[in-house]
Amino acid sequence: MKRKVSKNPIKKKREEKRIDKLKKAGRIVKGVEIPERALAANPDKQNCGAEYAVKLSYQDIQYICAGCGKEGVWSAEQQKKYFETQKGNIYNKPKWCYECRHKRIQDKHEEK
Ligand SMILES: [Zn+2]
């Protein structure tokens, strides 16, 4: 009986093609494949002091608002904008829903 060839050249080629396609689509960030449901990040644009903290991809984050207890979702698109365009703190996590955050800002203004 013949031994199975462990490194199938057709499969290998197919895998290379797949990786190539992912690279062209921007789905490989710093050599890491981005999960299908995640949004690819651009680590070079992030405001990050330490290399290990960079985000390679974003996924929707579910959270409970610390103010009203409402469930919220911080979408991958919002995170990308926050970290890469607004240069937000890389360690920040969602805590307040939009209404509560807005109210807090208003309250702070009124105190002054
Ligand atoms: Zn809230």
Characterization of this structure:
The structure is a single chain. The protein has helices spanning 9-24, 76-85, 98-111; strands spanning 28-29, 32-33, 39-40, 57-58, 61-64, 71-74. It is an alpha+beta fold. The chain has a domain at 37-111. It has a two-stranded antiparallel sheet with strand order 1-2. Strands 3-4 form a two-stranded antiparallel sheet. Strands 5-6 form a two-stranded antiparallel sheet. The chain is elongated. The N and C termini lie far apart (85 Å). The mean pLDDT is 90. Bound molecules: zinc ion (ZN). Zinc ion binds next to helix 3.
Task: Write a compact overview of the structure shown.
This protein is 36% helix and 14% strand.
First and last CA, distance: 85 Å
- Helix-strand makeup class: alpha+beta
Backbone CA Rg: 21 Å
- Helicity range of the residues? 25-40%
**pLDDT average, as an integer?**
90
